[in-house]
Design goal:
This protein has one domain (about 5-20, about 55-145): Thiol Ester Dehydrase, Chain A (Roll). About 20% of the residues lie in helices and about 35% in strands. The chain has helices at about 20-30, 40-45, 55-60, 70-75, and strands at about 15, 80-90, 100-115, 120-130, 135-145. It has a 5-stranded antiparallel sheet. Strand 4 and strand 5 (about 135-145) form a beta hairpin. The protein is elongated, with a radius of gyration of 17 Å. The N and C termini lie close together (about 10 Å).
Length: about 150
């Protein structure tokens, strides 16, 4: 059982610089075809100061740290029992190549279903840029099979 004492727990923030190559690779991998995500001239012509990040890109930034699943260990959860449940994105600004993005995750809820056979851990991650501007919020649900 996931200890409910972790509700409200904030994990150590992580920061990463957004690279053009990352953005292009993500756009390609997600089937994006709009040239603003690949061509700097097209991006500038569309009013962007640099290559913009495609939607949902911020999620991949959490995987850039040396141990992207350290939070699972921190909560004493068996990785072999973990399933990705749900992901929601809210956007307040744009991420661009060259930005330094900081992710700050917090456990906002833990609950169970099916008489404890499934536990759900809900995290809210704020996404800010180097100017301390909130550019997004990601909410994810992780399912733990007991």
């Amino acid at each position: 059982m996931i200890d409910r004492k972790f509700i409200g727990h904030r994990f150590a923030p992580s920061s990463v610089e957004v690279e053009k190559g990352q953005l292009k690779f993500f756009a390609l991998a997600t089937g994006t075809t709009d040239p603003v995500y690949f061509d700097e001239a097209a991006a500038r012509q569309a009013g962007h100061p640099a290559l913009p990040a495609p939607p949902t890109f911020a999620f991949s930034l959490g995987l850039a740290k040396p141990d992207p699943f350290d939070w699972i260990k921190e909560l004493d959860i068996d990785l072999g029992r973990v399933l990705h449940g749900e992901q929601k994105f809210e956007y307040f600004g744009q991420i661009y190549a060259g930005d330094v993005i900081t992710l700050q995750a917090e456990v906002v809820d833990i609950y169970d279903k099916k008489n404890g056979a499934l536990e759900f851990l809900v995290q809210r991650t704020t996404v800010t840029n180097q100017r301390q501007e909130l550019v997004g919020v990601m909410t994810s649900s992780t399912v733990v099979r007991n």
